TrEMBL record:
GO molecular function: ATP binding; ATP hydrolysis activity
Entry annotated with the keyword Nucleotide-binding: yes
InterPro entries: AAA+_ATPase (IPR003593), ABC_transp_ATP-bind (IPR050319), ABC_transporter-like_ATP-bd (IPR003439), ABC_transporter-like_CS (IPR017871), Oligopep_ABC_C (IPR013563), P-loop_NTPase (IPR027417)
SMART domains: AAA
Segments forming domain ABC transporter: 6-255
One GO term of the biological process aspect: transmembrane transport
Alphabetic keyword roster: ATP-binding, Nucleotide-binding, Transport
Source species of the chain: Geobacter metallireducens
PANTHER family per the UniProt record, alphabetical: D,D-DIPEPTIDE TRANSPORT ATP-BINDING PROTEIN DDPF-RELATED (PTHR43776:SF7), TRANSPORT ATP-BINDING PROTEIN (PTHR43776)
Matches recorded under SUPFAM superfamilies: P-loop containing nucleoside triphosphate hydrolases (SSF52540)
Protein name: Dipeptide ABC transporter ATP-binding protein
Similarity comment: Belongs to the ABC transporter superfamily.
Length: 325
């Protein structure tokens, strides 16, 4: 088997929080035994409702948070035991595009300096050659040379996200973690940014972890899809397989909510009962069973394993055969 570019194995992350000012501190399990693999040149879409732990996964990969347990491997090397040079290579090879295109940019720096900063940090381009490289990067993402001396507040949201993309590309990364990069943008601008990311992937051979809650966006850009619920992966597989024959009720509900110009024959909107349970007090057994239309007593008693239902298609559900996606 080919070594994946990035691999997460049984990653856990718990935060200690106070639900109210006078309440005792409690443990919140944001990521619960999560495993993922991303191959070279592949886009993995990570989808799920807000609060399910998607952004925490991105920050764990980037080293912005430390996992409580599990292993993160980059090109087969465990980052926990990696040498200093291997860690430096990882920091160059793996970059992040943040959700908010304004707060992720330094408002006191000119755009040319923001994009050129990674070149200085990693020592990739001599000082005299940086302006030329910055202009190349700006052109690559659809910005002009005249905009290099402006500040972030002078740009629209879509333009600011292009600046963030150019900054991520500056060090010629192999993998980009895109944390809901279009959720704060208008629909027409979303399409432009998604098409730009797709074009960059093809021309530069990039891999992406594309984090989103909108499955229509995930479908357009991803090769494989992983669906996350309450800190766990509940289904993962090839994109077309997931959208044609999903094997988990939560995925089925998410797919039913995707807007369509012409509804498919025999399909209907699935309205889940109740609210997502809090990770402060997760339900026993399958975490989705309180909202699941197919749930039976075994679902509350036993948590299903993430196992292969079809070739390359895994789901954590006792009753996948009941689904008709």
């Amino acid at each position: 088997m080919t070594t994946p570019l990035l691999e997460l194995e049984t990653i856990t992350k718990t935060f200690t929080v106070k639900p109210t000012p006078f309440a005792p501190r409690r443990a919140l399990r944001a990521v619960d035994g999560l495993s993922l693999r991303i191959g070279r040149g592949e886009t993995l879409g990570l989808a799920g409702e807000s609060g399910c732990g998607k952004s925490t996964v991105g920050r764990l990969i980037m080293g912005l948070l430390e996992p409580d347990g599990g292993t993160v491997r980059y090109q087969g090397t465990d980052l926990a035991t990696a040498s200093r040079d291997q860690r430096a290579a990882f920091r160059k090879d793996v970059q992040m595009i943040f959700q908010d295109p304004f707060s992720s940019l330094n408002p006191r720096m000119r755009v040319g300096d923001i994009i050129g900063e990674p070149l200085a940090i990693h020592g990739l381009v001599p000082r005299e050659g940086r302006p030329k490289r910055v202009l190349e990067l700006m052109e690559m993402v659809g910005l002009t040379a005249e905009q290099a001396n402006r500040y972030p507040h002078e740009f629209s949201g879509g333009q600011r996200q292009r600046i963030g993309i150019a900054r991520a590309l500056a060090v010629s990364p192999k993998l980009i973690v895109a944390d809901e990069p279009v959720s704060a943008l208008d629909l027409s601008i979303q399409a432009q940014i998604i098409n730009l990311l797709d074009e960059l992937k093809r021309s530069l051979g990039l891999s992406y972890l594309f984090i989103a809650h909108d499955l229509s966006v995930v479908r357009h850009l991803s090769d494989r899809v992983a669906v996350m619920y309450l800190g766990r992966i509940v289904e993962t597989g090839p994109r077309d397989e997931i959208f044609a024959r999903c094997q988990h009720p939560y995925t089925e509900a998410l797919l039913s909510a995707v807007p369509r110009l012409t509804p498919l024959a025999g399909t209907k909107r699935i309205i889940l009962k109740g609210e997502p349970p809090t990770p402060l007090d997760p339900p026993p057994g399958c975490p989705f069973h309180p909202r699941c239309p197919y749930a039976e007593p075994v679902c509350a008693a036993s948590a299903p394993l993430l196992e292969e239902k079809r070739p390359g298609h895994l789901a954590a559900c006792h009753f996948s055969k009941k689904l008709f996606c």
